[in-house]
Write a structure and sequence with these properties.
The protein is mainly alpha-helical and 325 residues long. It is built from 14 helices and 5 strands. Helix 4 packs across helix 8. The radius of gyration is 22 Å and the shape is elongated. The relative contact order is 0.14. The structure holds adenosine-5'-diphosphate (ADP) and tryptophan. The site of adenosine-5'-diphosphate (ADP) has 15 residues, from helix 1.
């Protein structure tokens, strides 16, 4: 049996190219590692911990699904579903809560960070890692690829799985292994800091062509005159251009920077063209998907059926083990 790979993504906003290169692309590529045994879900229950507007949450879930499918997620290879469509996730969260020491959750960085930022925590935010453990353990996942920021949540998941198995003296849960992507390059924003929706420096993944052009054309640059040679490695436009280009194209643009008589306006135009060319097939696919609004719902429903079948087996075991059945 091939190893089951699972990961979840929060529907936290309009996707930008930092999300694409930093997270989405590798999440989609997982489907080719273990076709048929990869699970990817939209963590809508986790999003509730920050009390979003209902219409906004619904829209973000739809858009996330659309954008992933447009970027090449193949729902035949990867079961793609909404977290909240899985029976048993909330029940398992409760059961795991009953074996979770408060201290374990009090030490969670994500919780401590939110409090430090002035958030008034609700109980959902506090037990966020328990819900995440339920997400992972319910599918008996072997491997869980996540970013560095989720490392501690995976440790908590492993702790809870081990503790449950010990308390009930039975190997109910598989102990999952994290795959931490330490090496993902940080995509810079239009201002040179890390691209992030919190810094208002993003280039949208599926923005309107005109808006993208405007965003790229307004990237701040220094005042080196047009004629002067420039160092590509000190230029943010060049750093972004690299994401979309082959080594040959990168070398060619670097040579133009160094030769002089090549202004930042020219570099921005090259970046805009590279962006449009890179995303053209995905934009086309997205347009097609938009013409068939039932498709996304259908994909998520089928994905949920596959995931529910696996979850049901675990939950039956769990209920018997704890004495509910
Ligand atoms: P944001 O910083 O815009 O709020 P999120 O925290 O929602 O983005 O990130 C979602 C995913 O995208 C995470 O896995 C994160 O590591 C990745 N990501 C976000 N911004 C970048 C970036 N600038 N470079 C690389 N990866 C990024
Ligand atoms: N907490 C994760 C994040 O913010 C999302 C997530 C929820 C997740 N459940 C998961 C990731 C289970 C991996 C496995 O990125």
């Amino acid at each position: 049996m091939s190893k089951r790979i699972l990961t979840g993504i929060q529907p936290s906003g309009i996707l930008h190219i930092g999300n694409y290169f930093g997270a989405m692309r590798s999440a989609i590529e997982l489907q080719n590692q273990n076709p048929g045994n990869t699970f990817l879900f939209i963590a809508d229950l986790h999003s509730l911990t920050v009390n979003p507007e209902p219409a906004d949450l619904r829209m973000r879930v739809q858009r996330l699904a659309l954008d992933f499918l447009a970027c090449g997620l193949d729902p035949e290879k990867t079961a793609f579903f909404r977290q909240s469509d899985i029976n048993g996730v909330c029940e398992l969260t409760w059961i795991l809560n009953t074996i979770t020491n408060l201290g374990l959750l009090e030490r969670a960085h994500s919780y401590k960070d939110k409090i430090a930022k002035g958030f008034v925590p609700n109980n959902g935010l506090f037990s966020y890692p328990v819900l995440m453990a339920a997400d992972i353990l319910i599918y008996q996942s072997d491997l869980v690829p996540v970013g560095k920021d989720q490392k501690q949540h995976l440790e908590i998941t492993r702790d809870l799985a081990i503790r449950f198995n010990q308390v009930y003296k039975k190997d109910v849960f598989k102990i999952p292994e994290p795959i931490i992507s330490e090496s993902v390059a940080v995509v810079p924003g239009t201002d040179g800091q890390k691209m992030s929706k919190s810094y208002n420096n993003t280039i949208e993944l599926f923005g309107e062509e005109k808006a993208i052009r405007k965003k790229i054309m307004s990237i701040p640059t220094d005042s080196t005159p047009m004629e002067a040679p420039k160092d590509p490695d000190k230029c943010n436009i060049f750093a972004l251009y690299k994401l979309f280009s082959t080594q040959e194209q990168i070398d060619a643009l670097a040579a133009k920077y160094r030769a002089g008589n090549f202004g930042y306006g020219h570099a921005k135009q090259a970046l805009f063209e590279a962006y449009m060319e890179f995303f053209a097939p995905m934009r086309k696919r997205r347009e097609e998907l938009l013409k068939d609004p039932g498709y996304i719902e259908d994909v998520l429903k089928k994905g949920a059926e596959r995931a529910n079948a696996v979850a049901a087996v675990t939950m039956d075991k769990v209920r018997r083990t704890v004495g509910l059945k």
